[in-house]
Amino acid sequence: MFLASIPSPSQSYLELGPLSIRAYGLMIALGVIAAVWLSQKRWVARGGDRDDITSLAMWCVPAGLIGSRVYHVLTDWRFDEGWATPFKLWEGGLGIPGGMAAGVLVGIWIIHRRSWDRPNMVDAIVPGLPLAQAIGRWGNWFNQELFGGPTDLPWALEIDQQHAAARGYSGVETFHPTFLYESLWNFGLVLLLIWIDKTKKLRAGALLAVYALGYLTVRLWLETVRVDHATEIAGVRVNIWMSIIGIAIAGGWLLLRGRRPETEVETGVSQTGEFDDADGQQVER
After folding, report:
1. Can you give the pLDDT at residue 75?
2. Of 73, 90, 226, 272, whose CB is crowded by the most CB atoms within 10 A?
3. Sequential DSSP letters for 261-274
4. pLDDT surpasses 70 at 188
5. Residue 69 to residues 36, 65, 100, 162: CA-CA distances in angstroms?
6. DSSP string of 19-77?
7. For helices 118-125 and 207-225, what crossing angle results, to 10°?
8. How many CB atoms lie within 10 A of CB 227?
9. Phi, psi at residue 205, to the nearest 5°?
């Protein structure tokens, strides 16, 4: 007897009059909007132009979606699903590691091309990344996908039998809500990143490594809980390998290069040659 459980939506789309909107795509769109809003707010606080973030998003968002889909197809797609399957974005299937890599690389390239302050712009944008993921993950709830193993915990997620049976759990009703675990973790990561940024203990631009370390740590754990199909290497899910590699790189970089030199902290001089005021905001002198 379950004390409580989280119900799954009865359908994966929302009906607005004659229109049917896929909830998966809607949650991704809402996540992007929230990330752009937060990034604009943080960039303006640093003396930047909010339109810079809009221009950057026009490149990074498509790059991230393409990178996410390519990563998913390369790691999880099976040839017996048909040649058209990789193009059915509305059915789900985005690999976050691929989106992270593609979006960040394209973003850094655009920032360099337009001669923006790369380290400080990166720090302004980074907290928006887990915010977008925290909201976007709810698309998996609507699709009843990427859930974890069976559980009778009070917050267990109810999954329809057709979806449970497809994962080899016919007769099982409730599972770990991994989408919720990741969403809550990412909301917390947003707050952590903003707090770390305010401490001014790290070099400008180092917040990206903190984000990668924080996200990949929870992803490493979630991959051991999820029961969806995944390509394996040496009996281990690909995303576990990718998480381990990413954690090693991000963690190593933070240890060796992440901390701001004490001279910068004491004098208030940033890596861009400007001065920081008492609140940590850059000002012209």
Report:
1. 75
2. 226
3. PHHHHHH-B-TTS-
4. yes
5. 21, 6, 11, 25
6. EEEEHHHHHHHHHHHHHHHHHHHHHHHTT--HHHHHHHHHHHHHHHHHHHHHHHHHHH-
7. 40
8. 17
9. 95, -15
Model pTM score: 0.85
Q: For residue 113, which amino acid is it?
A: R
Type of residue at 34: A
Whole-angstrom distance, CA of residue 39 vs CA of residue 18: 34
Do the bridges between strand 174-175 and strand 157-158 make them parallel or antiparallel, or are there none, so unpaired? antiparallel
d(CA 202, CA 212): 15
The pLDDT tens digits for 89-121 are 555 567 787 888 899 899 999 999 999 999 999
DSSP H or E stretch at residue 278? none
Which has more pLDDT, 257 or 217? 217
233 SS3 class? strand
* Residues linked to residue 14 through DSSP beta bridges, in sequence order: 21
8: nearest Cα among 123, 161, 128: 161
Look at residues 128, 126, 166 and name the one whose alpha carbon lies nearest to residue 145. 166
Contact between 235 and 245 (Cβ < 8 Å): no
Q: Using CA atoms, how far apart are residues 212 and 163, in angstroms rounded to an integer?
A: 31
Check residue 232 and report its DSSP letter: E
Mean pLDDT of the residues in the chain: 85
DSSP 8-state assignment for residue 10: S
